[in-house]
TrEMBL record:
Single GO biological process annotation from the record: protein transport
Name recorded for this polypeptide: small monomeric GTPase
Compositional bias per record (Polar residues), positions renumbered to this chain: 22-39
Annotated source species: Pygocentrus nattereri (Red-bellied piranha)
GO molecular function, one term: metal ion binding
EC top class named in words: hydrolase
Cofactor: Mg(2+)
Amino acid sequence: MEHATESEAADHGETIYPDSAYGSSAMDTDTEESQTQSSITLTYDEELIHKTILVGDSGVGKTSLLVQFDQGKFIPGSFSATVGIGFTNKVVSVDNMKVKLQIWDTAGQERFRSVTHAYYRDAQALLLLYDITRKSSFDNIRAWLTEIHEYAQKDVVIMLLGNKSDMAAERVIKHEEGQKLAKEYGVPFMETSAKTGLNVELAFHAIARELTQRAASQPHEPKFQIHDYIESQKQKSSCCGGLM
Ligand SMILES: Nc1nc2c(ncn2[C@@H]2O[C@H](COP(=O)(O)OP(=O)(O)OP(=O)(O)O)[C@@H](O)[C@H]2O)c(=O)[nH]1
């Protein structure tokens, strides 16, 4: 099994999340409005912690998407590949309930694959990203899905995201291609931009809502329809802003 060391990270000029593979992380910011770990202790129900993992090829924008969701900003400039794995906690509201998303950001590079596989089985949701300007990242989605089916829980919620939608001039993967692939695998799909923030909140809120409804619903109750929710919220946000 490959392990990332700090000296290895320094050699490659990469970002490392110290000790994150063993349960703590430099990225553990535990925020709704950047709350600290201690201030949040009593504000959420322990049962409503949902583990979500970001996966996809190196450079598709996983870290950037998480930073945009957590801090509402995009840091342009040189690309610093993730080493190993790190997590960020973020509290979101679902129907007036506080729900904590523990979001694991994985390294897309092949050499860290065995490290990240170990985290799949605890994940309740998985955001699978490709870059709309890089065909290879889209072509690799099938291989990612094969891995996911091998290592993750059977009922894991998967969402396909075509990131970097702001880069219209460099686009090589059409929106419809992403939609078609997602349909083939029966997973929800949307295009996102970690730069402009397009659909970033929506992606994470849809996951939070789906997992919360699953946790709370009775067998006879109608199931939450994540596809319908995403479509309705896309329409709302293009007209009025804000998530319901
Ligand atoms: N224009 C644009 N650039 C983006 C977007 N998302 C990420 N980038 C850029 O793409 C590069 C890679 O982004 P990262 O977030 O580091 O990619 P990653 O998937 O976390 O990469 P690994 O850590 O190696 O797995 C960086 O230079 C980002 O600034 C986006 O939505 N739009």
